[in-house]
Amino acid sequence: MQTEVFSDLFPLLSTASPQTLECLLNIAVEHEYPSGRAVLMEDAWGNAVYFLISGWVKVRRTNGDNSVTIAILGRGDFFGEMAVLDESPRSTDVVALSPVKLLTVSRERFIQILFKDAQLHHRMLQLMVRRVRQINMRLQMRSSPPAVKLAHTLVSLNDNYGQESDQGKEIYYIPFKDLAEVAEISLDETTKIMEKLHERGWIKCVPTSQSIYVINFKQLENLANKF
User: Fold this and answer.
1) Cα–Cα distance between 214 and 83 in angstroms, integer?
2) Cβ–Cβ contacts within 10 Å for residue 63, how many?
3) I need a labelling partner for 181 at 20 to 30 A (CA). Which of 58, 67, 165, 175 fits?
4) Cyclic nucleotide-binding domain: which residues (predicted)?
């Protein structure tokens, strides 16, 4: 992978120097995981940062035999940085929703690079603050109607990971159970709302190709802002 492609794919690396990009590419290790495979396990010590080249993963928190999906990440995102930076066990699992290809950079090398490249360091802080703001937004929306919460989740996925297509932006056909847990609504509510959005022509669900197309983003965004 060329450094320009690497930088364009990952927003985290958009301000990194050419030397930093070259170094990361030289030390990164590529991995592939099939759908359903655990990429990271909760309570494992943070020994690497993960860069998602392709595919989709879910981040989940476990409590005994139960697990709840708290986030969905797609191509161009990264994870594992919190356990690396605070030198503590991971607090969540990460599981592949689809076949996944990713790069890993060891904790020691990643921290060395952060100290050498101030722009990358600053960019990481910006993106971590953005994640905190997203968590705060979800807390503010807890009393919102289910349709608004689900629309907000879909808008966020579209903004962060949507790929242009002739039918609108395309995102992965995320299992409704995971969508429900991220939006903090019931599975029954999620199923009904997704069917209604599909009927209205705001989205198009195509299970056979594992795709959801966001066709009328403006209407979906308007609904998401009614919290």
Assistant:
1) 34
2) 7
3) 165
4) 12-131
Residue 34 pLDDT exceeds 70: yes
Distance CA 100, CA 74 (A): 9
Write the pLDDT tens digit of every residue in 168-180.
Answer: 899 999 999 999 9
Burial of 225 (0-12, 13-18, 19+ CB in 10 A): exposed
Cβ atoms within 10 A of the Cβ of 55, count?
Answer: 21
CB 105 within 8 A of CB 85: no
Where exactly are the structural domains of the chain? 3-139, 144-224
Give the separation between CA 67 and CA 18, rounded to whole angstroms. Answer: 40
Residue 34, classified by CB atoms within 10 Å of its CB into exposed (0-12), middle (13-18) or buried (19+), is exposed
- Single-letter amino acid, residue 188: D
Edge-to-edge order in the sheet of strand 66-73: 38-40, 93-96, 57-63, 66-73
Q: Is the domain defined by 3-139 classed in CATH 2.60.120.10?
A: yes
Mean pLDDT of the chain: 91
